[in-house]
Design brief:
76% of the residues lie in helices and 0% in strands. It has 3 domains: 28-121, no CATH class; 125-200; 225-300. By secondary structure, the protein is an all-alpha fold. The protein contains 12 helices and no strands.
Length: 303
């Protein structure tokens, strides 16, 4: 074949090759995601599949939360406002990305959408924590009412009034499947009732102030009574001041009333024993021990 004939054949083949390439590209575009997936890397294929699944679950979660919060108009309105951006996320996930970076960008947008939904309706962990706090607070109020009833110092009518309101809260405290919005609203009601219960608790009886004694240097046991008494007096005054500071620091919790009353009585007895060195029952070592025990007991009391 001559050079002229070979050139003519090559010239006739070029349009044919171009037409075949165009046909292949068109066939791939018409074949849809399946053909794209065949030439995509495994990482890109997995990313696309995960995004499409995440987009489907995100829209389903939004619809589910709208149904669950149907009684909360403001919350439903905020959830409905997510409709357009979530639809855009689903469209982005449905498109075939050009590369892995573009796919991961869509992944980030889907994660942000999930976080936005959780900020509106809360997470399961937040709901579990809220429910546990409500149950604990409710149980504590019930226990306090039982103590007040047993004490007999609060009028029955006042106790029954508060107990009736607590009975109305019980179904909400024990209800399963509640929303975080409902749980937080219940928590606000419980806080109100906690104040009402606390108002029923009678104030602690005033503790008698220990009688002060003249301060003097401390003295060890085994020395003459006069010197030993000086050491007792100093220890007693320090202890009496610490006791008065603790009692005067604010409202006294119910559980501290009994130990404080007992400690006050012991200090009163010590105030009478320390100066009475002529008594046959007076003993330097015994008084030292009593003062040390009283100091240790006061140190263990915590508000």
């Amino acid at each position: 074949m001559g050079a002229g004939s070979r050139g003519a054949v090559a010239s006739s083949l070029r349009p044919t090759a171009w037409a075949c390439g165009l046909a292949l590209a068109l066939a791939l575009s018409l074949a849809g995601p399946g053909a794209w997936a065949q030439k995509a890397s495994p990482e890109l294929t997995a990313c696309v599949a995960a995004n499409r699944q995440a987009a489907t679950e995100l829209l389903q979660a939004r619809e589910s939360e709208i149904r669950r919060h149907a009684l909360h108009a403001v919350l439903v309105s905020r959830l409905q406002g997510l409709g357009t951006p979530f639809s855009q996320l689903r469209a982005a996930a449905a498109r075939a990305p050009r590369n892995l970076a573009e796919c991961e960008k869509t992944t980030g947008a889907l994660n942000a959408g999930r976080e936005q939904l959780e900020r509106i309706v809360g997470t399961p962990e937040q709901l579990a924590s809220c429910s546990a706090d409500n149950q604990a607070a409710y149980g504590q109020m019930q226990a306090t009412l039982l103590e007040l009833q047993a004490g007999g110092k609060v009028p029955v009518a006042r106790l029954e009034s508060v107990a009736g309101r607590l009975d109305q809260l019980r179904p909400g405290v024990n209800r399963e499947g509640q929303t975080l919005t409902d749980c937080r609203a219940l928590a606000a009601e419980i806080e109100t009732e906690k104040a009402a219960v606390q108002a029923l608790v009678p104030p602690p009886p005033p503790a008698p102030a220990p009688r002060p004694a003249a301060a003097a240097p401390s003295a060890p046991a085994g020395v003459p009574p006069a010197v030993c008494r000086q050491g007792h007096t100093r220890q007693y005054n320090e202890l009496a001041q610490a006791y008065a500071a603790f009692v005067g620091a604010g409202p006294i919790p119910q559980e501290l009333m009994a130990p404080l009353q007992s400690l006050s009585e012991r200090l009163t007895r010590l105030a009478a024993q320390i100066p009475d060195t002529a008594s046959p029952d007076w003993n330097c070592d015994s008084i030292n021990s009593a003062l040390e025990r009283a100091r240790a007991d006061l140190g263990r009391l915590k508000r």
